[in-house]
């Protein structure tokens, strides 16, 4: 198995092998070299204070104290040249188009299963498969209206897809707030560098949601459904509702009557047509899923099955963002689109297969091992940065339930310049661009760039101590 290896030196996105600044970073490097340490330090303090004032914090799962933490913002942007973004944009749209076709297929004709490309057990025995959605038609046949695709650079700078986030992908509010902060703190840099805008994302999102309203509704009512203020991503839910100019609601604000969803308002009930839900499937309808859920709307599934409400993303999309399903996405692209994948997967071992399990157990100290349903950096082991005791303990977890894990090589993620305590230094990054699926596929140029602030660390998740950066995609 040919792999981009962690033994290869990380690709530096700003400096080439000869120590020269790459062309797309030259203007910024000239600006950066003219800034004093005191000025940069003052800007970093101002950024932290601003984020705290706005309330851009998150809570960490498992933190019983419910502590709200600030995600560190790095002043130095990640810069992507226009031609590289064109390749990414094409690959992202190709991938999400195929994933939507896959989800429609497995809830209808099962063509890819009957063709022997995706095993039946991978679909029908998967915890994310929702039999309640079998033969249910959704608006425009779009199941994933908002996708966040995690991409990394490794090897000689090639892009790889690390994960597909299709259930309730988060982080876009940080992309937007990071851009605001960059424009506020680095106005002179923006004056000399032409950067593609991202501020129109909420408008694109609203247009996208209105396009998939059920029936022939001229002026559909869109709402954002949140679990509530104690959810770790509540800031984002409130932010997006405010930016789109729609109501932020909890399950108790909605009710079902005569096979229609209504919102309680001070002027009486108002019909709802599209719900941008930031709530997992299990909690959406206590009559159909978890009976103990106080977060959902009783009867919602029956309205949905009747085609009288649009849920974005659709119930059952989790089958396609499962990390074990990820392995089959290149084959989905070939099967449904008749094309070769533009973006490659990271080579992956399935622990459910005995021969691949043996390899993983023998080489776990070299690999990244993940739970197939895990998220946020939890339920994973980064072998090279773990102790022998941690590796042995994780082996026992994997042996106990092999099907729950996959493994990947430890990639030498690319580095970008980052402002740390000692000055500007390279740190590893990933990128989560967002793809919107309405009647057309749309992206904004950039995404959520996460950075591992600790020297040598490959874990970029905010819950594990990572930070964020603005992403500048250059104009042509």
Automatic annotation (TrEMBL):
It comes from Achromobacter aloeverae. It comes from the Bacteria. Pfam families: CP_ATPgrasp_2. Residues 77-452 form the Circularly permuted ATP-grasp type domain. This is Circularly permuted ATP-grasp type 2 domain-containing protein. InterPro entries: ATP-dep_Glu-Cys_Ligase-2, CP_ATPgrasp_2, UCP005522.
């Amino acid at each position: 198995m040919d792999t981009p290896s962690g033994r290869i030196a990380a690709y530096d996105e700003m400096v080439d092998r000869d120590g020269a600044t790459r062309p797309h970073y030259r203007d910024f490097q000239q600006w950066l070299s003219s800034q004093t340490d005191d000025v940069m330090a003052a800007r970093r303090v101002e950024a932290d204070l601003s984020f705290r004032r706005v309330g851009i914090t998150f809570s960490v799962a498992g933190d019983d104290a419910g502590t709200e933490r600030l995600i560190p913002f790095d002043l130095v942007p990640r810069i992507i040249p226009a031609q590289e973004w064109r390749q990414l944009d094409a690959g992202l749209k190709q991938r999400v188009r195929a994933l939507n076709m896959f989800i429609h297929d497995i809830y209808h004709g099962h063509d890819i299963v009957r063709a022997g490309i995706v095993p039946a057990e991978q679909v029908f025995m998967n915890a994310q498969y929702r039999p309640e959605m079998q033969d249910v038609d959704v608006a425009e046949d779009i199941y994933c209206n908002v996708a966040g695709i995690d991409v990394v650079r490794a090897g000689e700078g090639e892009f790889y897809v690390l994960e597909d986030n299709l259930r309730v992908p988060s982080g876009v509010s940080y992309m937007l707030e990071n851009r605001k902060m960059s424009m506020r703190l680095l106005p002179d840099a923006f004056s000399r560098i032409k950067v593609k805008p991202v501020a129109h994302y909420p408008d694109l999102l609203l247009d996208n949601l209105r396009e998939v309203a059920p029936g022939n509704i001229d002026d559909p009512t869109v709402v954002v459904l949140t679990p509530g203020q104690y959810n770790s991503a509540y800031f984002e839910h409130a932010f997006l509702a405010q930016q789109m100019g729609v109501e932020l609601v909890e399950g108790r604000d909605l009710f079902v009557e005569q096979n229609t969803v209504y919102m309680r308002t001070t002027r009486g009930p108002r019909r709802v047509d599209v719900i941008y839900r930031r709530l997992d499937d299990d909690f959406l309808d206590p009559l159909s899923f978890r009976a103990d859920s106080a977060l959902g709307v009783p009867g919602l599934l029956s309205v949905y099955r009747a085609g009288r409400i649009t849920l974005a993303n659709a119930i059952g999309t989790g089958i396609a963002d499962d990390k074990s399903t990820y392995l089959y996405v290149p084959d989905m692209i070939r099967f449904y689109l008749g094309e070769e994948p533009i973006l490659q997967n990271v080579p992956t071992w399935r622990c459910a297969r005995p021969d691949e399990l043996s390899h993983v157990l023998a080489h776990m100290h070299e690999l990244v091992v993940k739970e197939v349903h895990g998220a946020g950096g939890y339920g994973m082991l980064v072998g090279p940065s773990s102790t022998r005791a941690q590796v042995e303990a994780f082996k026992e977890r994997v042996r106990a339930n092999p099907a729950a894990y996959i493994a990947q090589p430890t990639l030498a993620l690319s580095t970008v310049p980052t402002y740390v305590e000692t000055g500007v230094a390279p740190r590893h990054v990933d990128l989560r661009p967002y793809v919107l699926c309405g009647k057309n596929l749309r992206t904004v140029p950039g995404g959520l760039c996460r950075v591992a602030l600790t020297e040598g660390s490959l874990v970029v998740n905010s819950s594990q101590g990572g930070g964020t950066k603005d992403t500048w995609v250059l104009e042509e």
